[in-house]
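Dear support,

I submitted the protein below through the web form. The confirmation email said the job was done, but the results page showed an empty box. After a refresh the structure appeared. I'm attaching both so you can tell me whether what I see now is the final result or a partial one.
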Amino acid sequence: NNDITPLLDLIIDKVPNHEGDPEGGFQMLVSSMDYDDYVGRIAVGKINRGRVKAKTNYTQIDRDGKPKSFSLAKLYTYEGLRKVESEEAVTGDIVGIAGMKEVEIGETLTDKEFPDALPVIEIDEPTLAIHFSSNSSPFAGREGEFVTSRQIRERLFRETRSNVSLRVEETDTQDTFKVSGRGELHLTILIETMRREGYEFSISRPEVLVKVMDGVLHEPEEFVILDIQEEYLGNVMEAMGKRKATLQDMAQNEGATRLEFVIPTRGLFGFRSEFLTLTKGTGVINRNFNQFIPHCGDIAQRINGVLISLENGTTTGFSLFNLQERGTLFWGAGQEVYTGMIVGENNKDNDLVVNVCKE
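What the results page shows now:
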């Protein structure tokens, strides 16, 4: 049953209404950002107090407590997932406000007669970076509509207008851009969104963002919860140990086990697929940024080598069948490959050049 009406009814019945003063001076904390090509940045938040009207002057208080006046050009409210232009909104409404040249999450928008700021909220720092570049493989330009570095650059910097946790930097290489985000999921969503929009590009392996604190090099650490069947406990514990994870807690109930770890973010690279293999697809993993910790030294990143195509051509069922015992193949028969292309994962720790086009 895909009907969520009972859930919505429950929310309406049980979740209390906002308790702000509807007659007080307008006050809103900016908690999200949107962008429109015509009006620019749009500050999104819930009205904490009072009411707000379009085409009226208000005060913007920045993160340092400095006030400045602005004219509210456009006021938006939300109907479902749709943004609707409105003339007025009241306490408890979620609104979008345009009219400020620059605005950041954590700033307060208030009535000019009552310029009191709300507590500033902090934005999580990026912990992971990936380099984006134009596709330079022999198959470049076959699948995407937007393939040039100029188009990729424009799209990435446009994303930063509304995705405030994202950082985009140009590098010494003209067609390569360093994109930093709050973890694998944050960056993966951007990559998949751009792919669906018709962008074609190459990405590098992820790298963690380190920083020096009190003269000591620090790296990001994550808190991880693993839910597994008891029979897989030994293998999972061994795998996490190799990745320098520290067990925080363990609970067992009727054959199921929940493990809680802290682990360097580097230690989780490639772990999801290994974890699903170890638990035969039954394990569940949840993770979240925990803190920055002193650098933990080297962590083994790749246990298995790769299978590399010997020549340009089309893969054949005959060659793939004979290579099955060598490892896990990424391609089926009838797929175009080029020299140097990774076509599979080796069962051993060395890289192996193979002919996947033999007839």
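Response: this is the final, complete result; the empty box was a page-load delay. The chain is about 15% helix and 40% strand.
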